[in-house]
Amino acid sequence: MPRVSQEHLDSRRQQILDGARSTFAKFGYEGATVRRLEEATGLSRGAIFHHFRDKDALFLAVASEDASEMVETVAERGLVGVMQDLVAEAKQSETRGWLGTQLEVARRLRTDPEFAEEWGARWETLREASVARLRKQRDLGHLREDVPIEVLAGFLQLFYDGLSRYLATGRDEIELESVLRLVEDSVRKH
Amino acid sequence: MPRVSQEHLDSRRQQILDGARSTFAKFGYEGATVRRLEEATGLSRGAIFHHFRDKDALFLAVASEDASEMVETVAERGLVGVMQDLVAEAKQSETRGWLGTQLEVARRLRTDPEFAEEWGARWETLREASVARLRKQRDLGHLREDVPIEVLAGFLQLFYDGLSRYLATGRDEIELESVLRLVEDSVRKH
User: Fold this and answer.
1) Is A110 in contact with B100 (Cβ distance < 8 A)?
2) Which residues are CB-neighbours of B96 under 8 A, at least 6 positions away?
3) Does the beta-carbon distance from B151 to A179 stay under 8 Å?
4) Which pLDDT tens digit goes with each residue over B143-185?
5) Global pTM value
6) What are the percentages of helix, strand and coil residues in chain A, rounded to 5?
7) What's the ipTM?
8) Domains of chain B as residue ranges with CATH
9) Nearest CA of chain A to the CA of B147: how many Å?
């Protein structure tokens, strides 16, 4: 029996995540059937579910990828930087589709505590990174000092949620770059 | 054949809207089956679909009720006033459920132009009311003058979208009153 290298496993895992992302984006959570996941990944259900416990785990892993990438961006450019990137990426229908699918799980977050906990954990690292970056900005004298950092972080997070929801619907009537400048201005020291 | 009064028709229509709202809230869009709508309204499908063309029309009518109510609030207290009310109402699970169901239609808004147009029409009156109120605030000297009103309106709308998404998930870690004060501060003249 040949030994399977870690590289091979990682690359197989990434192949599944990429296929899953596009399936969730195109068909939504319920619509991402095992058959469609097989077609998109080019792998059998046996291979897919060897790497991921179930569809939830697959969905949460795709979300984790996003969260990890965003944490890096937040360190350098804050949540506003993440939002600028999101606006650029939302020109692609797969991005809009994936954003939309993430909206569909709102009910599960309310009714399924385990799922909510796992989902929350992905975004907790992002929140911590956002708070850390705000502290850095405050130490550099760039941040307004009349509002607690937790409130600034909550404000940015809610705005990110609204932006991502707006982009998911494919609407295009708001001047997003101008609005993001206002968001940045709202947390800055004057 | 007795004449059916307008009052009777209006009261029947409201009975259906109330039952539909709670069914959509509890079960989501797909889960709001005809059987469940009958149970919640206390009426037969014949009666329900005499007043509303189909489930979409019912869903859009419930959304219209919200939009109309919000337009009144916006005139007096702006979109921030609407958000304050939403925070208070979101203590009720039916409100959170209905907010969640509205998130589920993101995909349809992207893929079904007729549905998107009808949905957009409900919120257009709200947007117009928001812009009108911002103009009034500017005339009174309360509004910042370095940012165009359309950008301020877009900012408030995106924030409303994010707040409503956050409340739909039942999360409770952000100090919403403080964040709303920051939102209000962000559009004010200093």
Assistant:
1) yes
2) A110, B25, B90, B167, B168, B170
3) yes
4) 999 999 999 999 999 999 999 999 999 989 999 999 999 999 9
5) 0.95
6) 80, 0, 20
7) 0.94
8) 6-187 (1.10.357.10)
9) 8
